[in-house]
């Protein structure tokens, strides 16, 4: 595995140090650009869109780091030449590396946003160096987003920012389409700073990845034209940050939850754009601490391949957890975290010292995020009700429907329903029935959530109905399940998947109704309080967990009889366990 240098807080203390850190991530890509520089070849795996689009996506995504680097005064002549040549070639229909026209819902719309950001933040690097024909070709190619259907979700912001860029360059733009996109974004807004990712969509990291973050960018450039809308975007961003800070641990990590986790440190993009836009959601020292710790945490994980390329995965390379839209260049969306580099050299951000997180409640109900947040023992845990409807994305059951998500322990992805080891049902109640293993997918809409806990009704498979209450307690949480079953079966109430790398010490204990695991990071104990459960520990297949490649899962195992039965399980993880 390619070994980056060991990153420390000093690597993000000054502008010069941040520039070096960014270029350390990008320099390995230089030999991989195509002859005309319009395509970047970093891997061979496919996505659901055209293979011909994959190297175009890879070309565009490094701009999320390079644009703020250039906008803040940075200079790197080789990359400047690569992107001047690449933009000329990629938008030229006569060039062999032409990116081609688009279709409805084309992946290239996502990549247009990176180019548009460049046109807005550093036109002297992205726009002005192009020939007159090159400028015309670029505008003609960007107009493809206005000629076709664009996904009714966070993608609307790609269309918005692309049209704003064309407008600011003094070129024709789709005024009506711009307004339609902005109106759709407003329709997705819920409250407290939170958006749904499209009508009926989820509230997840697409808020900091796009929704809230792009709203602030829009406000930076369209204040004169739309002062009221821009002020709404700023106020929403301020409200969002008061909740979102609860997702981050003291060591810089935030809990994996939802889809697109391979975008990794894009989780900090919101805080980065707060600094850039002057949105004082927290003092500058606090924002610098959040951003710096997050980048240090991530860049010290084994996320690079032997050539220094960011891999698909989370804290290690892992195709198992990827989305159907993750191609080899996709992970470079993570560079959105570097938007703060667009700050001018004289900005006070470069002089203040990174501060710790402010004092945060140990238990916090985030009403508009639809979750309860617990903090303790260096761990941030989100207790969630789950989803009321399914969609077509990969592994959404595991990414949204578990009872709990942890910044320390991550979550696991099922390989199959055939064996319990392949199912890896951490933080879930799994049923062994009809020769397979079944877990919660969707829940009834009539659920409740407040400071005291979560109540849901769900069915893992026909013939089994479950009413579950999740109650936060000082040590972790208690799950009470009322199970109505038409068959005899077995239920496994599982805790977190704990790191059991054989190169590091850990202890495991099974005694009666209780099972526990402890390692250098912490512990998880599962205890049956009602229903006659027996403690046990599952060894799931390797590489099923996003954070740790080898894990074990403590659980309580229950015999479920036909009829109605109550079971109750306590899951502990917030206080250090004394052996």
Q: Which descriptors would you attach to this protein?
A:
globular, 20% strand, 29% helix, six-stranded antiparallel β-sheet, eight-stranded antiparallel β-sheet, single chain, 579 residues, alpha+beta, 16 helices
Draw up the topology in text.
Blueprint: H1 15-26, H2 54-60, H3 63-71, H4 77-90, H5 108-121, H6 123-126, H7 132-142, H8 144-147, H9 156-168, H10 175-188, E1 189-191, E2 194-195, H11 206-221, H12 227-244, H13 269-277, H14 284-299, E3 363-366, E4 371-376, E5 379-383, H15 396-400, E6 404-406, H16 420-423, E7 429-433, E8 436-438, E9 448-450, E10 453-461, E11 464-472, E12 476-485, E13 489-494, E14 498-499, E15 506-511, E16 514-519, E17 523-530, E18 534-538, E19 551-560, E20 563-572
Antiparallel strand pairs: 1-2, 3-4, 4-5, 5-6, 7-8, 7-13, 9-10, 10-11, 11-12, 12-20, 13-19, 14-19, 15-16, 16-17, 17-20, 18-19
Helix pairs in contact: 3-5, 4-7, 5-9, 9-10, 9-11, 11-12, 11-13, 13-14
